[in-house]
Amino acid sequence: MKEGIHPEYMETVVTCGCGESFKTRSTKPKIAIEICSKCHPFYTGKLRFVDSAGQIEKFKKRLQKSQKIEEAIK
């Protein structure tokens, strides 16, 4: 490998949104993730909604608005 062109490869702490953390190696000192294998529905078998940027709330508001319009028409 050429000298001086590659980033430093160091030990990294990865922290999940659920509070779980583990160590690995990367070019970044800290990595934050939203979901890990300890809380992912595929691995746990439990259904969990991962709300990315309030999309669930936006959908619920649209649904309520459309239901109000349907009631007003009737």
Map the helices and strands:
Layout: E1 10-16, E2 21-26, E3 30-33, H1 41-44, H2 55-73
Parallel strand pairs: 1-3
Antiparallel strand pairs: 1-2
User: Helix content range of the residues, please?
Assistant: 25-40%
**CATH class term of the domain at 1-44:** Few Secondary Structures
Task: Profile the largest sheet.
Answer: 3 strands, mixed
Strand content: 15-25%
Keywords:
about 70 residues; alpha+beta; Rhinovirus 14, subunit 4; three-stranded mixed β-sheet; 2 helices; 3 strands; about 30% helix; rRNA-binding; rRNA binding; zinc; ribonucleoprotein
Can you characterise this structure?
The protein has 74 residues and is an alpha+beta fold. It has a domain at 1-44: Rhinovirus 14, subunit 4. 31% of the residues lie in helices and 23% in strands. It is built from 2 helices and 3 strands, in the order E-E-E-H-H. The protein has helices at residues 41-44, 55-73, and strands at 10-16, 21-26, 30-33. A 3-stranded mixed sheet has the order 2-1-3, with no helix packed on it. Strand 1 and strand 2 (21-26) form a beta hairpin. 0% of the residues are buried. The model has no long low-confidence stretch (mean pLDDT 82).
In brief:
The protein has 2 helices and 3 strands; from the N terminus they run βββαα. The protein has 74 residues and is an alpha+beta fold. Binds the 23S rRNA.
